[in-house]
Amino acid sequence: MTPINDAIMGLILAGGLSRRMGGGDKGLSRLGEDTILDRIVARMRPQVEALFLNANGDPGRLAKLGLPILADTLPDFPGPLAGVLAGLDHAAQAGFAEVVVVPCDAPFLPADLVARLRGMAGGKGGAVTISGGRRHPTAALWPVHLRQALRTALVEEDQRRVETILRRQGFIEVEWPVEPFDPFMNVNDPEGLAQARALLERWPQA
């Protein structure tokens, strides 16, 4: 399908098992008056033409978010790359040329994330975020044309490391400041959730 002009699709990756949080959906953890996912949806929706959620299992538990859900198309929870692939496949069918993916556990995402990733990539390839010297492989812009290369890596090579694919495809690194706080901090475990709550108390505008 012909791409929809300059339109871009957004995808929140929530297809994992959240083992470090004790299972369940870590994105549904409360942070202030909202859940982590509520905050991510509110931050991402204005930045994209269409926003989807990659999740597995019963979709009813996530119905309140009001997002269409894309499940992994590969079995056995092979990791975030399977969610990216599901998003790229859907984007290709819907006519999008690019997808910005973000994790479900980063409640302080920048309001200009999409614009900066696209600006740095310049339509030439993918882009991935860096903050505090650390790469955040699940916060990235993916060109839809990479979906076949990604499928080959997952299915034929059993390559599940996001970092490996990003290096292989020459993703451009986009660096973000971490003052007064790191906008890409992840809530992976109860300690991380406590840190996020403390940050929000100190920086209500975060």
Automatic annotation (TrEMBL):
* One Pfam family, short name: NTP_transf_3
Cofactor list: Mg(2+)
Q: Which Gene3D superfamilies match?
A: Spore Coat Polysaccharide Biosynthesis Protein SpsA, Chain A
Its EC number(s)? 2.7.7.77
Q: Which residues bind Mg(2+)?
A: 105
Which GO-annotated molecular functions does the record name? nucleotidyltransferase activity
Q: What positions does the domain MobA-like NTP transferase occupy? A: 10-162
The catalytic activity, as recorded, is: Mo-molybdopterin + GTP + H(+) = Mo-molybdopterin guanine dinucleotide + diphosphate
Indicate which residues the UniProt annotation says bind GTP.
Answer: 13-15, 26, 54, 72, 105
Per UniProt, the keywords (alphabetical) are:
Cytoplasm, GTP-binding, Magnesium, Metal-binding, Molybdenum cofactor biosynthesis, Nucleotide-binding, Nucleotidyltransferase, Transferase
Instruction: Give its localization.
Output: Cytoplasm
Q: Which family does it belong to?
A: Belongs to the MobA family.
Q: How is the quaternary structure described?
A: Monomer.
Say what the protein does: Transfers a GMP moiety from GTP to Mo-molybdopterin (Mo-MPT) cofactor (Moco or molybdenum cofactor) to form Mo-molybdopterin guanine dinucleotide (Mo-MGD) cofactor.
Q: What is known of its domains?
A: The N-terminal domain determines nucleotide recognition and specific binding, while the C-terminal domain determines the specific binding to the target protein.
What is the protein name for this chain? Molybdenum cofactor guanylyltransferase
Organism expressing this protein natively? Labrys miyagiensis
